[in-house]
User: Fold this.
Amino acid sequence: MSNPIPAPQVLLAEVTHRCPLQCVYCSNPTELIKKTEEISTETWGKVFTEAADLGVLQVSISGGEPAARRDLTSLIKAARDADLYVNLITSGIGFKQSRLEEVIEAGCEHIQLSLQDVESEGAELISNLKKGLEKKLEFASWVRSHSVPLTINAVMHRLNLDRLPQTIEMAIEMGARRLEIANVQYHGWASFNKNTLMPTQEQSDRTNQIVAEAREKHHGKLLIDYVPVDHYAEYPKSCMNGWGQVALIVAPDGYVLPCRNATMLSHLDFANVVDNSLRSIWYESEAFNAYRGDAWMPDICKSCDRKDIDFGGCRCQALALLGDASAADPVCSRAHPHNLIPREYANSLIATDAASMNYRPNA
Amino acid sequence: MTPRVVPLDSILAFEPGIRLKHDTVRDRYVIQGPEVLIELNETGTAIMKEIDGTSDLSAVIGRLAKTFSVDPATITVDVSEFCTALLMKRVLTT
Assistant:
């Protein structure tokens, strides 16, 4: 290892995989963790305390739907007691106004609400839940009545990308300070629906332009973060800002992962917070050291001047498209000069649109 | 689009959900907010500590000038631009 390992700054606490929605692109792993396997309130408290001691500054409490845990308020309080900045990532479904008030009272500092579509039918097609959009609009109006900042996380794909301008308008109407325009990442559940969801190159190009215009138009009012379709990119995304550099994820059963999809890298062994300290997992575990630094990289990445920008890209994408988790990201136009793999792949998916959606189960 | 620099009579406050934190592990101050983490140097920290939601920008500059024993005129542009950038990031509000 050439550089010392930096302390982590960000914790993603996936407190449950249970969810009232069944989104076809859910970022949870395909083997969902059951309620009986979830770690306790006390163990989460230990995680938050150890994370803060390690240098973590903010936690995102996510799921599944975090509200599915009856102890959500206690979890938020425990995270605030550790002086972490507390984000709640929610679908807004399953909340009553009184529960939202309890969550804010407990110390939740920022709420991120997912948005499947600006049209009811589109939202239902993605989540297999009726009246989801209407409930989200109501939830947003409750958040607006408090002073807690709201982010809208709009997940985009071929079926709703043409409604991006309306999506931006809806985020503003909902009172959002931030909007994440995030294209689906085609791992896990999304990989079962990629034929239906993969955007066209034309949609991708138009989206880049709409985002640029919206950023200028709403400058200083609405902050826009944008995750493009990486199949059409020239360079890889800076996945997790580097493996084991900034963030760690704790799964509902206490296993600690360097990225949300890391369980698909089945050659790695992951450690659990129940019988290991977060410190030893971060600095010493095999999984966190597997893709740190450049020792694992193919020569073309090792000698590349972008290796400190994108860190060799996404390991899961390399495994999914090239069958080798240590290969250069398939998106990279330098490592793969013809750069046809992801584009051709995307086009072949679009050409064979599937007949039906594959939903994730609620639990 | 270059934003207008914030006027000296503006009263600056933190936006809801924004806080200034002493990061003891790294011995630095940071601004925290919704997906916001801004590392501050000594000057930035001094400015943020003066923003109290009741003082206008010229009062903030006056106090900073006194602390650092400089003429307020020599720091007005830098402090105004710093605050303007944070207004655009919705860290501060007027």
Remarks:
- Residues 11 and 59 of chain A are 5 Å apart (CA to CA).
- Chain A has 15 helices and nine strands.
- The interface with chain B takes residues 7, 9, 53-55, 57-58, 83, 85, 87, 109-110, 112, 147-149, 151, 177-178, 216, 219-221, 223, 225 of chain A (CB under 8 Å).
